[in-house]
Specification:
This is Protein EXORDIUM-like 2. This protein is an alpha/beta fold. Helix 3 packs parallel to helix 7.
């Protein structure tokens, strides 16, 4: 099971407590220190490609607007007609560069609403996989069942060691992939919804304005992007990753805290601004939606690739 590595988020947040050098000083230092290229090792396991169906299990209370933000993001991943650039689909195309994989088309499948909290408001990991199993799986097809928990649901490790996770479950002779992420707005927005909320540690610089006006759900999009990219490039824990298999750095989690050019710990980088709202974003999707998406490791350049 691969989680969004919380220790990398913690290092990012702890670094905020250190004095920030001037931009000129930072440039001088970067010129003197040659950074080693980031390499994600390929462990020769299968990657996902082709048609990928994403089923959604909404656990708890989500408004129709909140659900539409997430669904529009998923629909944007493979939408080639987005009129504006940079686009969500161009971000997703980087996953097709990984050896052993290829281009993929994401489609939204079933949506299950569990707004009665069938398993209560405190969930264990085993219950997450049980919820994911409720959406079913298909023999010979590529399916990812995603569990999304609302702001009033506590999950083991949430805010303490992870913001989301992905893994796989074996059913008979088949395996299906699942992912989970939670709405952190009332539990730990300084961890899992940064940079839309002030960080828990370090200087309390003003947070960015969320592009869809929802700190929790816009933060969920960042984490959904992270676990989906990890699922496609490391679905069964033997694809692309760096470090220990039980706590891997994957396609996006290896680039924690980077959203635009010039990013450094505590600064997400240069981003686009929505004139009317002042919201920060770096990608455009369907229905005119704007999103802030994290950098993804590009295997062709061995760098964390940003859209802006």
């Amino acid at each position: 099971m691969a989680a969004i590595p919380f220790f990398s988020l913690l290092l990012l947040l702890c670094s905020l407590a250190l004095p920030t050098p001037s931009l000129a000083t930072a440039r001088k230092l970067s010129a003197l220190v040659e950074q080693q290229p980031l390499i994600l090792q390929y462990h020769h396991g299968p990657l996902f490609k082709g048609n990928i169906t994403v089923n959604l299990i909404w656990y708890g209370k989500f408004s129709s607007t909140q659900r539409s933000i997430i669904v529009d993001f998923l629909n944007s991943l493979s939408y080639a007609k987005t009129p504006s650039s940079p686009s969500v689909s161009s971000w997703w195309q980087t996953t097709g560069k990984y050896k052993g994989g290829g281009s993929s088309r994401v489609v939204v499948g079933k949506q299950i609403l569990d707004d009665k909290y069938s398993l209560g408001k405190a969930l264990k990991t085993s219950q997450l996989t049980a919820l994911a199993s409720n959406a079913g799986y298909e023999h010979g097809g590529t399916v990812v069942n995603v569990v999304l928990t609302s702001a009033d649901v506590a999950v083991d490790g949430f805010c303490m060691s992870r913001c989301g996770t992905h893994g796989s479950v074996r059913v008979n002779k088949s395996r299906f992939a699942y992912a989970w992420l939670g709405n952190s707005v009332s539990q730990c927005p300084g961890y899992c919804a940064w940079p839309f909320h002030q960080p828990i540690y370090g200087p309390q610089t003003p947070p960015l304005v969320a592009p869809n006006g929802d700190v929790g759900v816009d933060g969920m999009v960042i984490n959904l992007a992270t676990v989906l990219a990890g699922t496609v490039t490391n679905p069964f824990n033997n694809g692309y990753f760096q470090g220990p298999a039980e706590a891997p750095l994957e396609a996006v989690s290896a680039c924690t805290g980077i959203f635009g050019k010039g990013a450094y710990p505590g600064y997400p980088g240069e981003l686009l601004l929505e004139k009317t709202t002042g919201a920060s974003y770096n990608a455009v999707g369907v229905n005119g939606r704007k999103y802030l998406l994290p950098a993804m490791w590009d295997p062709q350049t061995s760098t964390c690739k940003t859209l802006v």
